[in-house]
Design a protein that fits this description.
By secondary structure, the chain is an alpha+beta fold. The protein folds into two domains: 51 residues, no CATH class; 88 residues, Alpha-Beta Plaits, CATH 3.30.70.260. It has seven helices and five strands, in the order ααααβααββαββ. It has a five-stranded antiparallel sheet with strand order 2-3-1-4-5. The termini are far apart.
Length: 153
């Protein structure tokens, strides 16, 4: 039994002495040869790369309907109707997972800024659904809100 263990130790020692060391870096380069760069990236790396091109800050200009806003009464006289509307929108968008900052430019024009603009199309669509909005300008394109037909009212 003792002799059997010694023989095994000797065989393992001989195998280790004559074994070749594997150059893992060279082996990996051989495996990667001929593959496209996107095939070599993990799913997380691909997502990061995709977002890197889309995740820039974006600005959307929103023109408000003066007639609709004049009908609204502010809850706090010290705060304008536009400021209250922007605060309401900010909360609604935050609930939807969009972080948006609002800046009043003129009496009925607002700037909506997003730090992570990959979802700016969702923001644009949100504004076009609001009754208080006349038009939305993003990326030098102005979209006017579609008027509802009388039969839709």
């Amino acid at each position: 039994m003792k002799r059997h263990a010694i023989v095994m130790m000797v065989l393992v020692t001989i195998a280790i002495c004559f074994a070749k060391t594997i150059d893992y870096d060279r082996l990996e380069r051989q495996w990667e040869a001929g593959d496209h760069e996107d095939e070599l990236l993990s799913d997380d790396e691909l997502e990061y790369k995709r977002r890197g091109t889309l995740d820039k800050s974006e600005m959307v200009f929103v023109s408000l309907n003066e007639a609709v806003l004049r009908k609204r009464k502010p809850t706090d006289p010290a705060i304008s109707v536009v400021s209250e509307l922007c605060a309401t929108w900010k909360q609604m968008l935050l609930q939807g997972g969009l972080t948006v900052n609002f800046y009043e430019l003129e009496a009925y024009k607002v700037l909506a800024g997003m730090q992570h603009g990959s979802r700016v199309k969702e923001l644009r669509d949100f504004f076009l659904e609001q009754d208080e909005v006349i038009e939305v300008t993003w990326d030098q394109n102005t979209l006017k809100k579609k008027r509802k037909r009388k039969d839709e009212l």
